Every structure is written in C-alpha cells, then in structure tokens.
Amino acid sequence: MRRRTEVWGDDPSERDADATIAELSTEDLAQQRRWHDHRIVFPLKVVARFLARNGKRIGIAVVGGFLVVAGIALLVLPGPGWLVIFLGLGILATEFVWAERLLNKAKEKAQQAKTKVLERKALRTSRKADRRVSELAAADRHGAPSPSSEPDTPDADEDDVETA
C-alpha cells in the first residue's frame, strides 16, 4: 500500500506523465482552439445536427399539424373541414404511429357510418317497393287505375309562363 508521501509515477510500472505532456504539447494549438468547438457555438452545432438528422420528420409534423388545425378551423368556417383533417392525419401517419392509429380508427368509423347509411337506404327502398306493391294490389281490387300508372301531365300554369 502507498503512503501519502509517495507520488504517482514513482513506480516503474506506471507511465511517466512527462511523455503524455510532451505528446500534448506537440499538437498544434490552432487545432485545439477551433472556433466551432467554442463553448458558445457548441449548442448551436447540436441544434444544427438535430435539425439535419430529423428535418424530414420535423417538416412532416409541421405540415400535418397545420392541416389538422386548418381542418378544425374549417369545421366552423365554410370549407371541407373533415377532408383536410383526414389529409393532415394521413401526412402525420407517415412518420408517427399515434397518427396512424387515429387514422385507422377514423377509417373504421367512416366504414361503419357508410354501412349504416347503405342499410337505411336499402330499407327505405324496400319500404317504397312494398308500398307500391300494396298500392297496385289495392287498385286491382277496386278496379281503379293505380296512381303510379297515370301519365304525368304538366300543369297548365307552367306552360303559360313566358320569359320576357
């Protein structure tokens, strides 16, 4: 064990500090003091490196976020609000997983709404067809012509109107 009076480097197996100092002194001082390694400039280098590496992602976030916000504004203003929102989510989904999940959920809801509308339309069409069948059956029982079989005649008032 060493005593406090012993100095580092006294042991022959240890490297002499003079050789290390000599190596450092031979380096060019201009090389050591480059302007872009200065402590004030260094944070700017970090920011520039970050922007260079993530520039595409930042650009996509800015453009997609702007479209989503513009779409929200267009919900109350005249314009295609939902279309712009979905376009913005589509752009954001190219880089962000959360936007892709939200877009998929929106697609599922849109598909559900589409099937619901088509089911209502089919139900309305079938009711209309059933009503026509019942009208035809009632007309056959009474011997009167059915209302749908009468020819459409234009009103006389419409024919008399002339443009000046």
Task: Give a brief outline of the structure.
This protein has 164 residues and is mainly α.
List keywords for this structure.
rod-shaped, 6 helices, mainly alpha, 164 residues
Secondary structure topology:
Layout (H helix, E strand, L loop, with lengths): L16 H10 L2 H4 L9 H35 L4 H12 L4 H46 L13 H5 L4
Helix pairs in contact: 3-4, 4-5
Descriptive overview:
The protein is mostly helical. The protein contains 6 helices and no strands. The termini are far apart.
Q: How many H/I helical runs?
A: 6
Number of DSSP-assigned strands: 0
H/E topology pattern: HHHHHH
Structural class by SSE content: mainly alpha
- In round numbers, the mean pLDDT is 75
Low-confidence stretches: none
| Proportion of residues in β-strands | under 5%
Shape: rod-shaped
The helix fraction, in percent, is: 55-70%
- How can the largest sheet be summarized? none
The value of Rg in angstroms is 41 Å
- Tell me the distance between the termini: 121 Å
